[in-house]
Write a structure and sequence with these properties.
2 copies of one chain form a homodimer. With about 350 residues, chain A is of the alpha+beta class. Chain A has helices spanning about 5-35, 55-70, 80-85, 105-110, 200-215, 235-245, 260-270, 315-330; strands spanning about 40-45, 50, 75, 95-105, 115-125, 125-135, 140-145, 155, 165, 185-190, 230, 250-255, 275, 300-305. Chain A has 2 domains: about 5-165, Fructose-1,6-Bisphosphatase, Chain A, domain 1 (2-Layer Sandwich); about 185-330, D-Maltodextrin-Binding Protein, domain 2. In chain A, the strands form 3 sheets. A 7-stranded mixed sheet of chain A has the order 3-4-5-6-7-8-9, sandwiched between helices. In chain A, strands 11-10-12-14-13 form a 5-stranded mixed sheet, with helices on both faces. In chain A, strand 8 (about 155) and strand 9 form a beta hairpin. The radius of gyration of chain A is 19 Å and the shape is globular. Chains A and B meet through helix 4, helix 5 and strand 11 of A and helix 4, helix 5 and strand 11 of B.
Chain lengths: ~350, ~350
C-alpha cells in the first residue's frame, strides 16, 4: 500500500500537464509540416489500425520526461506495449504511469481534431491523476485534468498553460440523471477496429447496441432507449472525458485499453462518476452492488456524476440503475485481454 | 440574375462573421448562467427534437442585425420556419440569408461542444458566403468561413476575432482521395431524430448504411466499405464543415434542412468539394455527370476537395467515382420536403 500526500500528487499533476502540453506542441508542429505532405502511416492490425512516427516520438518524449523526474515509478505506454511480447495487464499497487501518446490516430491522420494525449497515474491500482490534452481542439488546445483525492479537484483549461481553468464538472452541482434514463441521455460509443462481417462479430453487436439505445421507447422488443443522441468521436479517451466533465452522460466502449481510459477515469472518479464492466458480471444479483471496471479489462461503461434526485435517490442509486438499464439494452461484447 | 462584386461579398462575409461571434457570445453567456440551473427545453417533434429560448433569441439577434444592414435581402431562419405555416423551399435567385441559429441543440443542452451557429448567404440560389461558428469549441470558439468566388477564399479562425486565420483546406493542395475510397476515408453521418422502430425506417436504414461503410471489404454482400472511421457529432453543420475543411472525406446525411448545411456548402464549394443527393437520382446513367444536391432536398452527400491523383484522374472524376461507391453501399432514405 503506497500513500502519497496531496502535495506529492499535485507535483505529479503539474508534471503531467507540462509533459502533455509539450507532447501537444510536438504533434502540432508535426501537423504543420504535414500540411504540405501526406503522412506516412504503418498498419498494425489492419488498414484502420494505424501508427505514425509521431505516436512513437511522443511516447518517447513523455516516458523520458516522466522517468527523469520519477525514475522509481513504473510506466506502461501503448506503443511500447504494442511492440513488446508481454500482453498481460501489469498494473500493481506501486505508483504507475499509464500513457497513450496519441489516442485517435486515425483522426490525426485526417486532421479531425478529436485526438488526445492521455497521461494517467495510478496509486494502489486506482487512477489518481489524469491529464488529457487535445492539442488540435481550439487554438490553444483543450486540456482536461484531475487529482482524485479529497483535497484534489478537476479542471478544464482551454486558454493555454498560463490561462484560467474552469472547475469540473461544468455544471456544479451536477444535475440528477434524467428520471427515465437512458431516455434523454447523451451516449458515446465507437465502432472500433474489429470490422469482421459476422452476426456475432463485435461490429455487428455494437451497431445493434447503438440502434437499441437510439430507438423509441417500446421499440426493439423493449430494448429501445430513446437516448438524446449517439456520438462517435473516434477517440475513447475523448468519449470518457466528455462524460467525466458532465458534457455527456454515458460512455460505452469495449476493445480499447487501459491507456485509452486511465487518465479519463481519474477525472471521472473525481467528478463523482462511476465506471463498470460494459458486460454484466455473470454472477451479479439484481440488487448486488456493481463492482468497478477492471482497468485492464478492455470493457468500460461510464456514467457521469450527478446529484440526489427529486425522489431522494442518491447519485450511486441513479448510476447503478442506469448501468442496469444499459446492460438490458446491449449485447455482450467479446473483447478479452490476450494471455 | 443578381451580380454581386467581390467587394459586396466581402462586406456580407464580414457582417456574417461579426454577427456569428455576437450570437456566440450570447450562447456562451447563456451557458455560464446555466452552470447552476438546468436548462428549460421544449420538445418540437418528439423528446429528442428540442428547442430552447436561446435558439429563438439567437435567431432574432441574427435576423435583426442582418436586415438592419440589408433590408432588401430575403431571410430564411430555422426557428421562424418551424413556427410558420409555409413549408415549401422558398429560395429564389435574389440575395437570401439562410440561417440556423443553433445547430446541435441537443449537444448544447448537454454542454457537449459540437454546437454551431450557421449563417449562409445565397446568390442565384448558390451558397456564396458561409460562416459557421462553434462558440464552445476551444476557449475562443472556432469559426469556419468562406466567400465562394474566384477572388474569394476559405478560412479557419480559432484565436478570436482579432487573431490569425488559417486558409482552408487545411492541407494545400489537398491530397487525392484514397485510391480505393471509401476504404481509408473518414465518414460523417448522424442517426437523426426519426427514431421509429421498423425495418424500413430511416433509423434502421441509416444504421445499416453505417455498418456497411465500416465493414471489411468483401463483407456485407460486397457492400463493405472499410472506411477509416464513422463519426457522429450530433451536428450536421459541423459534419459538413469538417469535410469542407479537409478534416474528413465524406458527409452523408439526410433529414436535415437547408439552414443546417447552406453555410457549410459555401465553404465546401470554395475548397473544391462537391455535394450531391444522398439518394441516387432515379434516371442517372452510369456515366452521366452527377447533379449538385437540391439545397432544399434534405438529402446531402458531400465529398471533400482533392487534387489530381497519380493516374491523372481529375478531382471531379475521383469525387464522382466515390459518390457512386457510397450509393452502392447505402439504402435510399425517405426524407422529403413537406408540401
Amino acid at each position: 500500500m503506497t500513500e502519497l500526500t496531496i502535495q506529492q500528487l499535485e507535483a505529479t499533476h503539474l508534471l503531467a500537464c507540462k509533459v502533455a502540453r509539450a507532447a501537444g506542441d510536438y504533434l502540432r508542429e508535426d501537423q504543420l509540416r504535414r500540411r504540405n505532405v501526406t503522412l506516412a502511416t504503418r498498419e498494425k492490425l489492419n488498414s484502420v489500425d494505424l501508427v505514425t512516427a509521431a505516436d512513437e516520438g511522443v511516447e518517447k518524449l513523455i516516458r523520458e520526461a516522466i522517468l527523469k523526474e520519477y525514475p522509481e515509478h513504473a510506466f506502461i505506454g501503448e506503443e511500447s506495449y504494442s511492440a513488446g511480447e508481454e500482453k498481460r495487464f501489469l498494473l500493481k499497487d506501486e505508483p504507475t504511469w499509464i500513457v497513450d501518446p496519441v489516442d485517435g490516430t486515425v483522426n490525426m491522420v485526417h486532421m479531425f481534431p478529436m485526438t488526445a494525449i492521455s497521461i494517467g497515474f495510478c496509486v494502489n491500482s486506482i487512477p489518481t491523476v489524469g491529464v488529457v490534452f487535445a492539442p488540435f481542439l481550439g487554438g490553444k488546445g483543450t486540456l482536461y485534468s484531475a487529482i482524485h483525492h479529497p483535497q484534489g479537484g478537476a479542471w478544464l483549461s482551454e486558454f493555454g498553460h498560463d490561462g484560467p481553468s474552469t472547475p469540473l464538472p461544468l455544471t456544479s452541482p451536477p444535475p440528477p440523471l434524467p428520471v427515465d434514463a437512458p431516455k434523454g441521455c447523451l451516449f458515446f460509443g465507437e465502432y472500433g477496429k474489429d470490422r469482421r462481417d459476422h452476426p456475432q462479430s463485435n461490429l455487428t453487436k455494437k451497431a445493434t447496441n447503438f440502434v437499441n439505445m437510439a430507438t423509441e421507447i417500446g421499440g426493439r422488443e423493449g430494448k429501445g432507449g430513446m437516448v438524446h443522441g449517439i456520438r462517435s468521436l473516434g477517440s475513447s479517451t475523448m468519449d470518457m472525458v466528455y462524460v467525466a466533465s458532465g458534457q455527456g452522460d454515458i460512455m460505452f466502449e469495449a476493445g480499447c485499453w487501459e491507456w485509452d481510459v486511465c487518465a479519463g477515469i481519474a477525472i471521472l472518479l473525481q467528478t463523482g462518476g462511476i465506471v463498470v464492466d460494459s458486460n454484466p458480471p455473470p454472477d451479479l444479483g439484481p440488487t448486488d452492488p456493481i463492482p468497478m471496471a477492471n482497468l485492464g479489462g478492455r470493457r468500460y461503461l461510464a456514467i457521469r456524476g450527478c446529484s440526489e434526485d427529486a425522489e431522494g435517490r442518491s447519485a450511486r442509486e441513479q448510476q447503478e440503475r442506469l448501468v442496469r438499464e444499459v446492460w438490458k439494452r446491449t449485447e455482450r461484447l467479446d473483447y478479452k485481454r490476450p494471455v
